[in-house]
Amino acid sequence: MAEVSTTAPILQLAGVCKAFGDAEVLHGIDLAVERGEVVAVLGPSGSGKTTLLRCANLLEHADAGELALDGAHFDLARVTAKEAAEIRRNTAFVFQSYNLFRNRTVLGNVTEGLVVAHRMPKDEAREIAVRCLERVGMADRLDAYPVQLSGGQQQRVAIARAMATSPKVVYFDEPTSALDPELTVEVLGVMRDLAQDGMTMVVVTHEMGFARNVADRVVFMEHGVVQAEAPAREFFDHPANERVRAFLDTIR
Ligand code: ADP
């Protein structure tokens, strides 16, 4: 569990708005995450959880909103190319569908970002990549290609890739929803280890066990607004309002 911090949050989003055509999907979202904190973002399908992560990491262009990342401030609606590169260099994103390079080996997938975006010498990149792959239990498959791996193994490689650049925040977008239950367990185990190591994580998930037992805090979204937020245990044991109670009823 993260200790209560007296310093500024490492990540702060304020007033994030996003519409797709006429459909306004995010109605001014505020979110603050402390260093080392694990925040689970929960909510019904279509409530805007994925869009929020994608706006925070510039995979979608927000219509309005501020981002503060470890003291650096950005206007999400007007980021310059240089600012975008800075935001991307300091954050990482783990996708539901892994998004590994199919024509690169396990090792190549992890070194790529270090060599290209972080301009690291190849030897150094290899050393870091091997260390991260050891961390997720994939160091014995360095030369394998994604197609030769299970979904759970691919996702563990994707997590190693995300860790390799020492990001300030890692966003996880439903990282286990494409996986069978036994593979889900192995990926959640890796995520739990990283959380215990102090990685700052924002995790969109349907895994209530993970949210309850690993996350420090739960943010509950519905219809593009944050309906409730609470320490994880409190969120489940003492639902803040009727909307949370109704959501928990649908998954119990
Ligand atoms: P959640 O992650 O909570 O399931 P999403 O952020 O994926 O919700 O989606 C929120 C809403 O935005 C949904 O109604 C979805 O259909 C819509 N949406 C998401 N991405 C796009 C897109 N690229 N174009 C149009 N509508 C989108």
What does this structure look like?
This protein has 252 residues and is α/β, with parallel strands linked by helices. It has helices spanning 49-56, 81-89, 106-116, 122-135, 151-164, 181-196, 208-213, 232-237, 242-251, and strands spanning 11-20, 23-33, 38-42, 64-69, 72-75, 91-94, 169-173, 201-204, 217-222, 225-231. A 6-stranded mixed beta sheet has the order 6-7-8-3-9-10, sandwiched between helices. Strands 2-1-4-5 form a 4-stranded antiparallel beta sheet, with helices on one face. A hairpin with a 2-residue loop joins strand 1 and strand 2. Helix 3 packs across helix 4, helix 3 (106-116) runs parallel beside helix 5 and helix 5 packs parallel to helix 6. The longest helix is centred in the last third of the chain and has 16 residues, at 181-196. The structure holds adenosine-5'-diphosphate. Adenosine-5'-diphosphate (ADP) binds next to helix 1. It comes from Enorma massiliensis. This is Glutamine ABC transporter ATP-binding protein. InterPro entries: AAA+_ATPase, ABC_ATPase_HisP-typ, ABC_transporter-like_ATP-bd, ABC_transporter-like_CS, MetN_ABC_transporter-like, P-loop_NTPase. It is found in: Cell membrane.
